[in-house]
């Protein structure tokens, strides 16, 4: 079965995640309170970025995938000059990006930090983030809270998830899952099986690092951040051990003193 790059096809990515909007209101409302300008790390095709721009917030985006950025640029044109005028897009490594602007808010949404598998890579990203924040600026980010039920192995044939419509073909998306306790890497294999005979099945693989609360809090502290608030869901509940997510607002220690 053909294997495809998980982030190599913006059209499939948008078909897969177009329904996911649960985080948008929280990020948008927090930005409207804090003000801009904002920077979205790992902006992809602009799901979060354009939600902010549509609310009147000047927002830049950084991503390492040329294809995802090309799709974001096309979306900006489709949305018209008023929204497009609030957006700048940059191709760069989220660990070592260097821009001329300092931001009121930098976002690392949708499990972005989980794509960095080693502590030193997370620290590089956080240190670059701190260098681009205004003195009283904020980092907003979210990562999964690795509950035991998320670490269960699912082997062949996989667990059916949903149907997605992609390039005129309906595919059943299923997943297989493995977790390496030593590396804390979660490997999910997504299988896409066409509902018709005129298309071929394919797979994509996604590797994410699971960060315990102690892991992510410690890395933020080591990079010079202090946590202002930590929620367990985008509906506003405070974080507890059983929470599905870790939603964090942090400031640099220099910001804490300002």
Would you summarize the structure shown here?
The protein is α/β, with parallel strands linked by helices and 258 residues long. It is built from 8 helices and 12 strands. The longest helix has 14 residues, at 66-79.
Description:
This protein has 258 residues and is an alpha/beta fold. The protein has two domains: 7-144 and 211-257, 3-Layer(aba) Sandwich (Rossmann fold), CATH 3.40.50; 148-209. Helix content is 28%, strand content 36%. The protein contains eight helices and twelve strands. It has helices at residues 10-17, 24-34, 47-54, 66-79, 81-84, 119-131, 213-222, 253-257; strands at residues 2-4, 38-41, 59-63, 87-91, 103-108, 133-144, 154-166, 169-180, 185-194, 202-209, 225-231, 245-252. The strands form two sheets. The chain has a seven-stranded mixed β-sheet, sandwiched between helices. The protein has a five-stranded mixed β-sheet with strand order 1-10-9-8-7. A hairpin with a 2-residue loop joins strand 7 and strand 8 (169-180).
SSE pattern: EHHEHEHHEEHEEEEEHEEH
**CATH class designation of the largest domain:** Alpha Beta
Question: What's the CATH superfamily of the largest domain, by name?
Answer: Vaccinia Virus protein VP39
**Major sheet size, sense and barrel closure:** 7 strands, mixed
User: How many domains make up the coordinates?
Assistant: 2
Q: Structural class per helix/strand content?
A: alpha/beta
Termini distance? 56 Å
Whole-number mean pLDDT: 93
Provide the β-strand percentage band.
Answer: 35-45%
What's the Cα radius of gyration?
19 Å
Shape: globular
Q: In which order are the strands of the major sheet placed?
A: 4-3-2-5-6-12-11
């Amino acid at each position: 079965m053909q294997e495809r790059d998980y982030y190599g096809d913006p059209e499939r990515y948008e078909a897969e995640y177009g329904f996911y909007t649960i985080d948008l209101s929280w990020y948008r409302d927090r930005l409207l309170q804090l003000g801009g300008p904002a920077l979205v790390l790992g902006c992809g095709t602009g799901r979060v970025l354009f939600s902010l721009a549509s609310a009147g917030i000047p927002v830049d985006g950084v991503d390492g995938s040329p294809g995802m950025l090309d799709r974001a640029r096309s979306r900006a044109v489709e949305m018209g000059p008023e929204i497009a005028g609030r957006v700048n897009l940059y191709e760069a490594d989220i660990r070592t990006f260097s821009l001329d602007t300092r931001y009121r808010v930098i976002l690392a949404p949708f499990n972005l930090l989980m794509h960095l598998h080693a502590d030193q890579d997370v620290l590089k990203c956080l240190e670059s983030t701190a260098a681009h924040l205004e003195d009283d600026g904020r980092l907003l980010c979210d990562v999964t809270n690795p509950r035991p039920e998320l670490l269960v192995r699912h082997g062949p044939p996989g667990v059916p998830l949903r149907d997605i419509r992609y390039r005129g073909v309906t595919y059943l998306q299923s997943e297989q899952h493995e977790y390496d306790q030593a590396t804390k890497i979660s490997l999910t294999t997504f299988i896409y099986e066409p509902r018709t005979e005129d298309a071929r099945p394919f797979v994509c693989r996604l590797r994410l690092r699971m960060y315990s609360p102690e892991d992510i809090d410690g890395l933020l502290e080591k990079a010079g951040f202090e946590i202002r608030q930590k929620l367990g869901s985008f509906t506003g509940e405070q974080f507890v051990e059983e929470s599905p997510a870790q939603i964090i607002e942090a400031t640099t220690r220099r910001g804490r003193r300002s």
